[in-house]
Amino acid sequence: MRINQYSIAKTSLEQKFRELKKLHLLRGNEAAELDPSQMWLTLLARTHMASEQPIAIRQWLHDFLATPDLAIDEWLEHDLPLTTEVFYFVAFQLLHFEPGVDFNIDHPLKDWAHIGLPFNQHTSWSTADVLEAFYLLLNTRTKDGQSFIDQLTSEGFMAWSYRLPPYKKPIYFNGKPLASFDPAKFIREVVYVETDMDTDYDGKADLIKVEILRPSDSNNSLKVPAVFTASPYNQGTNDEWGEKVTHHVNHPLTHKNAGEVAPAEPKFPQHFTHQEIKGESKHATESFAETPAYTLNNYLAARGYAIVYSAGIGTKDSDGLQTCGSPEQTDSMKAVVEWLHGDRVAFTDRHSGIQIKAWWCNGNVAMTGRSYLGTLATAVATTAVPGLKAIISEAAISSWYDYYRENGLVRAPGGFQGEDADVLADETFSRTKRPADYHRIEKTNNKYIAGLAKAMDRKTGNYNDFWASRNYRPAIKNIKAAVMMVHGLNDTNVKPSNVKALYDGLQELPVTSKLVLHQGQHIYINAFQSLDFSEMVNLWLANKLWDQDNHADETLPKVLVQDNTQPETWWTYDQWTAGSKKTLYFNKTELTENDPQLSTEYRFNDQQTPETFEKWCKNINDWQNALVKDNGKFSYHLKTAPVDQDLLLRGTPEVNVTVAASTDHGMISVQLVDFGNAKRLTISPVLMNHNGLQLGFHWASDDLREFKLQSNLSNFKVIADGHINLQNRHSAAEVDDLSANQFVKVHFKLQPIFHHLLKGHQLGLIIYSTDFGATLRGNEKITYTIKTKDSFLMIPGVTSL
């Protein structure tokens, strides 16, 4: 087991003592009056939440080992001085590690260091040493996936603080607000923010429903920041409808003619009316019981952040249509930030005209969320809207073309063959949940979706104005908010190219950016045992939203990456790409650093038997395994020699391929593969404790998870891929002609990587055509010929380990 902590801020000794007093752990003149052992026992007793009675505390201490042979009370009878070994032997148990299971009782300090827990070493202990070490212990992660201070707060350690006057809150510890806000008294209210658009063509500005969860202290002079999650899924989805409108993909690619232009996207009215303001109130007239919640937000709510959710236009209880990533959708979410900052009108209900302001908000806003949610956070950040101080953008799209298309091809996000922008719009159009409302808007929505479907252009797969309006990358230069990016290196849904483009753009700006790359697919990482992600976010947002001078930017790493070869291991870096660039040439079936000069041709045919084709359509894993084992029938394989040392590969690989197709259309796909027998990390995190991670006292919980090594060896892992239409050799927007058997040179980027290649493993390249999990599946009898001359792979950022 290893635990990695990056959220512990540097704090002076004087500040540590002040904070311990503020928590009632240190009282009066105890620092001067008590000897080290007395101080230690006093601190221990005050962390016992079950009872304050001396007899109960004595019994509790009797069940802790101070040494391999003595309980704490027995050790005290020997009148021995406190030692580092005794302090951390007990600390292990306080953090819920089991003696003899999680650590060796004869060598606790060795295992403490192996696990990665922070500690103070002393040859002899003073009372000040005890206080400093206990302060650090409170910041140390438990086996249960939270800091010791958070474990205590979940047991009621901070319940006394609920009664404090609002001006004494939040209570900060090590630069982070503690859970000092009573969840039982959270205020739940609904407002309707007015936008500056009319996306349902009714002549009136669209209103969008906003749900707010905030501490009761914000009703009594405490101004709190807002954490806003823009989620089109928040008010429900049309899953069955989405399945019905999913596009068929089992049909051939076709030849494209230059000059083919898709119809323009439907335009929305420019003239409409705003609702007349007829009064103002400080009190919302609507509430809500529950709303789909992000557990990181639940963690933050108990620490004083107001949590805000909105599904935006085209959703239940809001106006407008679903537009899938359009500027209008961005602006609808931007409007919520503007209202929180005090720059936009909202109403207590849909019709009365009674205005309500976010008078409880300090004007500072952050946006959070994964996938579509993180995408909208990124999109809103590119508008430079005032008040948006930070975003935590997880598995977010930075260009929708890179989500549903690639280099002139229709390409599905992993696991969602046949989905497209129109399908996602239908799935999230939750106005269907109000039957009468949907009846009134049905024809308008059907007409709009039909126009959207034509504009997105599944016929050619080209980049066009529809996709340009959903490309946030040109506007990255406008970002003023601090950005924390989180992405899975194995995410086949929102692929890593999306975060790499955002990361690269931010490096040119005078804004703070942080990048966390994990080994998962399309997941959240705020409940990992091995990483203090929630505490990192709390530290960061305390700085950005509460204006705490806690050195968050200096404390948190610039780039944090989970290792792919061993569990529970994270590394810090200054940047994504660094190291030398290697060019690997095609030499028959080998990838070599020396250009062989000689040219060889390799052919493969893309067609499968009907039985095999049907089988692979139903089970993508069967296709993937067959592809890796293929002997040249439907793919071309190349490999390096086994590497003689561990290598780290960082950046975006690129390939040049000289290829011909036996027809006037075709596509090439490529996989970059790590070949070598190894126990690799599980594809998804393993559940360790259902609802075992408590997010506050009598509040919400989360499932504790962690990646583990698979029980069996595997002999390969795909680490990147790429696809290109042979008629889009120069750009995704430009069509090139293609004749049967015409050799053309294609150059394209694969997905970016940050990969640890073990000694003895081989780097492989598989060139093929149909990707059964992503591209159209025509099963045509097309023969592809690869000419090795001028064909090569470029790997950036190669460093030895």
TrEMBL record:
GO molecular function per UniProt: aminopeptidase activity; dipeptidyl-peptidase activity; serine-type peptidase activity
SMART domains (alphabetical): PepX_C (SM00939), PepX_N (SM00940)
Catalytic activity, as annotated: Hydrolyzes Xaa-Pro-|- bonds to release unblocked, N-terminal dipeptides from substrates including Ala-Pro-|-p-nitroanilide and (sequentially) Tyr-Pro-|-Phe-Pro-|-Gly-Pro-|-Ile
Listed name of the protein: Xaa-Pro dipeptidyl-peptidase
GO biological process: proteolysis
Source organism of the structure: Limosilactobacillus fastidiosus
Boundaries of every X-Prolyl dipeptidyl aminopeptidase PepX N-terminal domain copy: 1-157
Similarity comment text for this entry: Belongs to the peptidase S15 family.
